[in-house]
Design brief:
This protein is of the alpha/beta class. 28% of the residues lie in helices and 19% in strands. The chain has two domains: 3-98, Rossmann fold (3-Layer(aba) Sandwich), CATH 3.40.50; 133-378, Aldolase class I (TIM Barrel). The protein has helices at residues 3-8, 20-31, 76-84, 112-131, 171-184, 204-211, 232-237, 257-266, 292-300, 319-326, 345-356; strands at residues 13-16, 38-40, 50-51, 54-57, 65-69, 89-93, 137-144, 187-194, 217-224, 243-249, 271-275, 278-280, 307-311, 314-316, 337-339, 376-378. Helix 5 packs across helix 11.
Length: 407
Amino acid sequence: MTPLKRSLNSENIYILGTGNFGRLVLQGLRRLGLKPHAFIDLNPLNVGKSIDGIYVKSLVEVLKGHVIVASNRNNIKYLYGLLDKNVGLTYDLCDFVFDDFVYEEIDLDWSPARVTSEIKNFLMRVKDGDRDGLGVSLNSLDIVLTEKCSLKCKDCSNLMQYYTAPKNSDHVSLLEELGVVLAAVDRISEVRLIGGEPLLYKNLDEVLFFLSSFDNFGEIVIYTNGTIVPKESLLSVSTDPRFRYQISDYGSLSKNTSKLVETLSEKNIRYVHDRVLSWQDCATIDRKNRSPEQTEFVYSNCCVNDAFTLLHGKIFGCPFSAHAENLNAIPMFKKDSVDIRTLNTSQIVARLKELKNIRFLGACSYCNGRDYTVAKVPAAIQTSQPLHYMPIKEPLQNPRSHKVSER
C-alpha cells in the first residue's frame, strides 16, 4: 500500500472534475481500493447528478476532506487557488492513480486510443512541470499549415469561416520557425498540425520529415476532417511511431473517412477516429462585457488555454487569439503572443514563460469562451460563403487585462 493510499483511507475523498478525465480518475481510485465520497464540480448544471454511481456536489458544500484534482488542462494553479480558500480541505493532483493504470472501457466521449493519448500527455506535462525551471516546456503547440479547408463550417472554433482569401503558411519560413521553437523549448508534449485542413498543404510530407529529426516532443498529431486520403509520399513519412492522425468524422461530410481509416490501417500508421456530433458555440467575434474576475474564470477554465498556436512567425496563447488577430478582427495585444522572428532563444523562453502564466489574454475580451458553461451547437453546419465580421479597432479599457501572475 502506498503512503498516499494509506493516508486517504481514513478521510472523505472527493474528485474535483466530472468530465472524461474525472471518470478515468474514479476508475483509477477504485482500482487502488479507494471509494470516493463524491465528485465536486464547478458547473452548477452537474451538481446533484450521479455519475458512475457517485453523487456530484458543489465546492461550497464540501467543508472537510481530501480532494483529488482531476484535470488534464492548464488550470491546475487556478483550481488549487479555489481549494486553498477552504482550510478544511487538503488536495493532491491525480497523477498517482495512473501508475500501472489499465483502462477498462466505459462510456466516454473519448475513444480508447484517445484515452491512452490523454493520459500519456498528462503525465508528460506533470513531469515537465517538475523540471520547468531554467527552461520551458509546452503541453501543446498548434502549427497552422494553412487557412484553407475542404469544409466550410460556420461554427469553426478556429475562425476559418471568416477568411475570404485563405492562404498557406510559407513553407521555407515555417521550417525555419519550427527549428527556432524546437531549439528553444525543453519539450512539447503534443505538436498538432492543423488548418484549415492540413492535408491540403502540399508540403506536409516535408514538414513531417523535418520534425522527425527532433526528439524533444511527445507526439505529432495531424488533425483531419476525413475528406482527403494522404498521398503516398505523405504516408511513407507518417510511419514514425510518434506520429498520429486524429480523424474528426462529420458523417456524410467526411466522405473519405472509411478509405482513410483503411489506408492508415494497411500502412500501420497510428490514428484515432472520433465521430463528432457537436461543438461549443465559440465562433463569434465581439466585445464581451466581463469583469477581470469573470474573464479570469473564462480563461482558467478554457479547454484550449494551453493550445499555443504558431501562425506566421508568432506563437499565440490560443487559436482564437491567433486567428482573430490574423483576421484584423480585434486589436493587437502584444502580450498575447511571442514574435519568434525578432527574439533570441533566451528571450523566447522568457516570453513563453510569461505567456504560460498570464492571468488571461487580451483576446479573451472578444471571445465567447470555451469553458464548461458554453452552449453546444451541431458540428460542421456548412455555409456557402465566408461569414462577415466587423473589425474592432479599439481595445477595452482595462489596465489589469494583461497582468501576469502565478495562476
